[in-house]
């Protein structure tokens, strides 16, 4: 399994303006084959920071996601909101152990 974690900084007021583009991206990504989970969350201490957590079945699923049409459209849409990726890390992981 591949896990991708990222932090992004949005321009002031961008969260409200970009809501539709964000929701469209999450919906399209979750529908992709090989996507196990795909989430955006806003940092409670700083609403300009978006936390991104993604899980894929394998590296091929991640590559297909990265090259998808909805990813290209999302990147184009988000450029107007001054979104900057602060960090982006990929992990190779097992299925984990359910704690609860």
Main traits of this protein?
single chain, 100 residues, alpha+beta, 4-stranded antiparallel beta sheet, globular
Question: What percent of residues are in strands?
Answer: 35-45%
How many strands appear in the DSSP assignment? 4
What Rg is obtained from the alpha carbons, in whole angstroms? 14 Å
Task: Output the strand order for the largest sheet.
Answer: 2-3-1-4
Please give the alpha-carbon distance between the first and last residues: 20 Å
Q: What is the overall pLDDT average? A: 94
Largest sheet: 4 strands, antiparallel
Could you explain how this protein is built, in words?
The protein has 100 residues and is α+β, with helices and mostly antiparallel strands. 35% of the residues lie in helices and 37% in strands. It has four helices and four strands, in the order E-H-H-E-E-H-H-E. Strands 2-3-1-4 form a four-stranded antiparallel sheet, with helices on one face. A hairpin with a 2-residue loop joins strand 2 and strand 3. Helix 2 runs antiparallel to helix 4.
Summarize the model shown.
The chain is an alpha+beta fold and 100 residues long.
Helices and strands, with pairings:
Elements (H helix, E strand, L loop, with lengths): L1 E8 L4 H4 L1 H12 L4 E9 L2 E11 L2 H8 L2 H11 L4 E9 L8
Antiparallel strand pairs: 1-3, 1-4, 2-3
Helix pairs in contact: 2-4
């Amino acid at each position: 399994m591949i896990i991708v974690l990222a932090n992004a900084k949005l321009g002031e007021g961008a969260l409200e303006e970009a809501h539709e583009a964000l929701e469209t991206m999450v919906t399209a990504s979750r529908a992709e084959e090989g996507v196990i989970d795909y989430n955006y969350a806003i940092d409670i201490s700083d609403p300009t920071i978006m936390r991104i957590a993604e899980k894929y079945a394998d590296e091929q699923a991640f590559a297909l996601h990265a090259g998808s049409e909805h990813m290209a459209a999302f990147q184009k849409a988000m450029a107007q909101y001054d979104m900057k990726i602060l960090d982006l890390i990929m992990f190779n992981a097992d299925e984990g152990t359910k704690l609860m």
